[in-house]
Amino acid sequence: MDLQTIKSSDPKEHAQNIEKYITQLKFFCHEEIKLVKEPKAKALFETSAEVLSGLEKAFSDYQAENEGAWVNDEDRPTLQ
């Protein structure tokens, strides 16, 4: 996995780029689980994959702006 920086100044494109690598690393962790016998290593790799899944969701939510923390301030409802 060769990490590549993109030239864009759009933060969502950078988020998409990072998410791509997170997804690849998560898949790699699952593949490594199949190759080792030690239960502690399997647990470590599975835990890592779960954490990466959380990051993957955070990056996806940021790009889609469908999580409260990622909604633009001007799109937030105002209290009246």
Describe this structure in words.
This protein is mainly alpha-helical and 80 residues long. It has a domain at 11-65. It is 64% helix and 0% strand. It has 2 helices and no strands. The longest helix is centred in the middle third of the chain and has 26 residues, at 39-64. It is elongated and about 55 Å long. The mean pLDDT is 88.
* General form: elongated
Q: How much beta, percentage-wise?
A: under 5%
Q: Mind describing the biggest β-sheet?
A: none
Backbone structural class: mainly alpha
Name the helix and strand elements from N-terminus to C-terminus, one letter apiece: HH
User: What's the total helix number?
Assistant: 2
Task: Please outline the helices and strands.
Elements: H1 11-35, H2 39-64
Helix pairs in contact: 1-2
Q: Which features characterize this protein?
A:
mainly alpha, 80 residues
What's the short story on this structure?
This protein is mainly α and 80 residues long. The chain has helices at residues 11-35, 39-64.
